[in-house]
Design goal:
Diaminopimelate Epimerase, Chain A, domain 1, 4 helices, about 15% helix
């Protein structure tokens, strides 16, 4: 089975071209095996690039633990790059079917290849029941969450998948690696949640570390960066346009006041291709 490894700001996935090849029989099991950083290729998960009856392509995403997720902004940019660079669809503007619906991706092309992409990530979801979370508010904004007898103030939104954002003075391993997994599996989040720890540098610049549902800490999270941009505005901490500094690189965000949609821009990089035994 031929695979390609790609990353967006260090958020790395294994990509399978299901236009030219049959999809795997058991993608959840394959994701667990191929994502293992010691006995597999090593990645944050597996993404299938499939034909679509509604769009230019369809993206299916599986976390490193085998669970299927709705969306991944960094993954979607790489899907768009693969589609263009490998000649599946040669258009500077693509539509990709995801668990969040059909999303539009604008490509920045140089030398015949995609270097960067901007995604219309859609409108943030605020209804608590749709995020989903049992915390109060639509959306829950700066609400108390009790974790291991400590109270944290959190803001929750969905960008097609659930996010819990914490603004902190200092981002530490104790928070990300200790509290992150406890919030992911907290009873307030019936489908688990992604967790973002954010330090506000100024009104248009933040530093973020992410604990991703099903994958652990990752170097970047596109939907998470979008959630941070929205939460920053909701809590009065940031402007609508920000730069998010993540462990793997920078992402540009714009929560547009004119159409209420969040736009995500960042790099997409192909690392290498190889063969995985069936």
């Amino acid at each position: 089975m031929r695979f390609t490894k790609m990353h967006g700001a260090g958020n790395d996935y294994i990509y399978l071209d299901c236009f030219r090849n049959s999809p795997p029989r058991d993608p959840a099991t394959l994701s667990r095996a191929i994502s293992d950083r010691h006995f597999g290729v090593g990645s944050d998960g597996l993404i299938l690039i499939c034909p679509s009856e509604k769009a230019d392509a369809r993206m299916r995403m599986f976390n490193a633990d085998g669970s299927e997720a709705e969306m991944c902004g960094n993954g979607l940019r790489c899907v768009a790059k693969y589609i263009y660079d490998h000649g599946l669809v040669r258009k500077p503007s693509l539509q990709v079917e995801t668990g969040r619906g059909i999303l539009k991706v604008e490509l920045e092309i140089a030398g015949g290849a995609v270097r960067q992409a901007t995604i219309d990530m859609g409108e943030p979801i605020f209804e608590a029941s749709r995020i989903p979370t049992t915390l109060s508010g639509n959306p829950p904004t700066n609400v108390a969450l009790n974790v291991s007898d400590q109270v944290y103030r959190v803001t929750c939104v969905s960008m097609g998948n659930p996010h819990c954002v914490l603004f902190v003075d200092s981002i530490t391993d104790a928070l990300v690696l200790g509290i992150g997994p406890k919030i992911e599996t907290h009873s307030a989040f019936p489908k688990r949640t992604n967790v973002e720890f954010v330090r506000v540098n100024n009104s248009d610049e933040v530093t973020v570390r992410v604990w991703e549902r099903g994958s652990g800490e990752t170097l970047a999270c596109g939907t998470g960066a979008c959630a941070v941009a929205v939460a920053g505005v909701l809590t009065g901490r940031t402007q609508r346009r920000i730069i998010a500094h993540l462990s793997g690189g920078d992402l540009s965000l714009n929560w547009s006041e004119s159409d209420n949609r969040v736009y995500l821009s960042g790099p997409a990089v192909e690392v290498f291709s190889g063969e995985w035994p069936d």
